[in-house]
Design brief:
By secondary structure, the protein is mainly α. The chain has 16 helices and two strands. Strands 1-2 form a two-stranded antiparallel ribbon. Helix 3 packs antiparallel against helix 7.
Amino acid sequence: MFSSGSLGFQQSSFVELRTISKNRMSGNTVVEDPGIPLVSRGNGKYSKYMEDDTQSSSTTTTTNVMTSKFDNISYRLSRRKQLLRYRTIVVNFEFSFALLGIVLMLIETELFFQGVISKSSVASIVLKSCITLSTVFLLVAVVGYHVTGIQLCMTDNSLEDWRLAVTFPWTYLKILLELCVCIIHPIPGNITISAVDPDGKPKEVSIDAILSILMLLRVYLISKFMVVHSKLLTSTATQSLGALNKVKINSTFVFKALMSSMPGTILIVIMLAILVVNSWAMRTCEAYYHPDPKNSDFFNDMWMIAITFLTVGYGDIYPNSYCGRFVSVATGLMGVGTTALLVAVLAQKLEQSRAEKYVHNFVTRAQLDKERKIAAADTIKYVLQLWRMKKNNENNSRKRIRLHGKLLQAIAAMKEAKNEKASIGETAIGFIEIAKSVNDIVDVSESLQESQSELKMKMTEIDSTIKDLQTKMDAIYTAVVRR
C-alpha cells in the first residue's frame, strides 16, 4: 500500500519526465537545476523540512501538499473519543449476549433436572438454538471489540496501516483464545460419548454438562464491562496520567484500585460468586454423570463446596464423578488464592498508619521517660537508705539484703527503659523517613560540592591575583634597582 505522499511524488516525477522527453525531441538542451531537491514537494509529510526556493518554484511544477489525516490533533482526539464510545457499546453488547446465553443455559438445565423437558424435546432444541444464536452475536461483538482496539492503537500512534498496530502472533492468539472461550455452549440435540465412571463402569454420558460448565467462563466479561464503565477509564485526567507514566488502564489496574479502595466488599463478592457458581457446577456434574439424591441436592453441594473452599474437608460428602472431582480441585485452588488475598488485606488494614504510629511512639516514649525517672529516683532512695544504715552501724542483714535487691531492680528498670526508648526510635523509621533522609543528605552534599567549587574558583582567582602582584612587585623592584 502506498500513501498519498508517495502517489504525489510519482505524479510529479512523471510530469517532469514527460517535459524532459519533449525538450529532447524538439532539440532543446536541458540543463539540470541543482536547486531542485531530490525529494519532490508533493511528499507532504516532510515538506516542512525543505527550503522554500522562490526561483526554483517558478520553474518547477507546483503540486498540492497531501498531508496525513493523523497530523491534525483535533481529528485524532475526536476519533479517539468516538472509538472509546463505540468500544463501550460493543462491550455492552458482549456482556448482554453472554448473560443471555448463560441465563438460557441455566433455564434449559434446570428444566431438564426437574424432568419437565428432555434433550430431544422441542423446548430443549429451541432453547439451545437461542443459545447458539446469542453465541454467534457474541462472537461478532468480540471481533468488533478487537477491531476497535486496533483502530485505537492506530489513532494513538498515527499509523496508516492496521498491520503496524498488530503484534504477531500475540494479537491473533489473544483473539483466537477469546473466541474459543466464547464459542463453548450446549449444542442442540443430545450428543453422548462413551466414558468410564470412577467405579470402572462404562456408560454413555452427555457432553452438555461439560459444555454448560465451561460456558460459565464467559463471566470474565464482567471485568471488561467494569473497565469500560469505570471512572478510571472515562476520566481524561486518569488516561493522561497513565499515558505519561506508561501505565495501562485495564482490568488489572481497575481490580487493584478496587482492592485498595474497598477490599472487604470485593472479597465478599468473590467468595459468594465462587460458592454459588461452583455449587451449581458440582450439582450439574453429579446429576449428569453419577445421579445420587444426596449429591444431586444443591444445598448439600453448597456444603461440600464450602468445606472444600475453606480447605477443611470433613469427608461426609465427596464427589462421585471425574467432573465433580475436577470442580473440587478448582474450588480448593480458588480457596487458597482467596485466603491469601484475605490475609494480605487483613495485614494491611491492621497495620498502623504513619500518623497513628507517630502518636503511639510519642505516648510510649513519654511513658518510658516517666518509668526511667521513677527508677532513677528509686535508685537514689535505696542508695541513701543503705548509706544511712552503714552510717548508723545497723546490723540488720535482712533489711540490707532487701534494700540491695530493690536497688538492683531499680537500676535494671532504668536500663531497660532506656533501651526500649532507643528501640522505639529505631522502629519509628520507615521507608519514607529513610528516603527523606537520603534526599536531605543528597541536598547537603550538593550544596557542599557547590561551595567547594566556589572556594576553588576563589582560590584560583586569589592565586592569579597574587601572581599579578608578584609580577608587578618584581617590576617595581627592578625599576628601583636600575635607578
